[in-house]
């Protein structure tokens, strides 16, 4: 008993620290929890004034941004007024351009915000077109918004130059070499067949002269890269049709298609507004083509090596040289009478210059794309503002829609037949044929150009040019949204899907011929 008590006491003493340790840890954890709780409360108390600061005076956040941008725009208007005076007041050219530009921007943003479940997004250019059309045909706005024909023509030709630069830089020599003749068939065949069918239909249905029929055919015969390329890139990212190179094929062929349409239009325009013989006008068109291609190739070689690769801001300098040379060529060729030379000069220069640029070519394309973001609202807004409901005949819209629809059916059938024996399945041929109908950018440039030329040099030909303008407007309005919807809905259903990481999307293994 005596011996065991000290042992028990010793054991109790020994066990005392172990029994109190959990309590100490518990107390410390409670203390830490209280500290973290106090820190969290202090942080929330500190953040409360910050949240309230957004609504304090002066304002912060989005409200501050809106006020700043509004004041900046107003000061820009004040600076323009100090230089030009009445030009920025209602009825002036700058006032009209600013209204059309911002209205087109708002129209495009509204269309981007419209999201319908399971339906592809409509192209923003449709909202820009409708914004310009609304401004022209609302009585109150139409009385105060006027733009000089010279200003409008210069802006549209500049937009055409940007489109052609994008087409030239977008041509991939390796992809074209790999796709071989199928790309040429897709670019040449549908455009030429639709141009010829439009000429025949308009000659008998609308009483167009043959030269005006072919001019109209090349206006509506071009496919729109602004609709086709983004839609195809979206399908390519998801892996649809990449094994057979369908997105690559359509992207490459769209640039060639525009080149053919613009070249044919320039030749037909010079024939329609000249008084000489047809043979003489055709020879003059070939002369313009030869001059434009040779001059563009020579300066393209120059821009390929100047500036050199050791300079800073290389992409900006190259983009500036290309833009300045091409805009000067396009606008200057109209002044000296070489109408077809400027466009081909632009294509040749941009294609030759970008051949050996490798990765730097993508940076130049980004700069040109930024410039296009500025000119796109102006282009489609101006085209929409050219169409007046009061100037249209009662049966003009119906006849124009019938003419365009019949020619479009011929184009779809021709595209399907040309894709036979090219390694595609029946569903893929249907998809390619229906994807080849959207029209927008080229029609927006070439349609008003015929009307402007007629109003300046041949007023008696204005009725024909007005019908060309109307059909170009309707072609954009009808085919651009429908084409985007067809590509977005039909593509995932009929095209085979593969993993993009396992297939080279630029050069596929299928031997297309």
UniProtKB/TrEMBL annotation:
Domain Cation/H+ exchanger transmembrane: 117-481
Compositionally biased intervals (Basic and acidic residues): 28-38, 45-55
Keyword set includes Transmembrane helix: yes
Cellular compartments annotated: Membrane
UniProt topology in membrane: Multi-pass membrane protein
Region annotation (Disordered) ranges: 1-56
Any single Pfam family the record assigns to this protein: Na_H_Exchanger
Domain of life: Eukaryota
Keyword check for Cell membrane: no
Keyword terms of this UniProt record: Membrane, Transmembrane, Transmembrane helix
Transmembrane residue ranges: 63-83, 95-114, 212-235, 247-273, 289-307, 342-359, 371-390, 396-418, 430-451, 471-491
Family designation: Belongs to the monovalent cation:proton antiporter 1 (CPA1) transporter (TC 2.A.36) family.
Protein name: Cation/H+ exchanger transmembrane domain-containing protein
Origin species: Felis catus (Cat)
Gene designation: SLC9B1
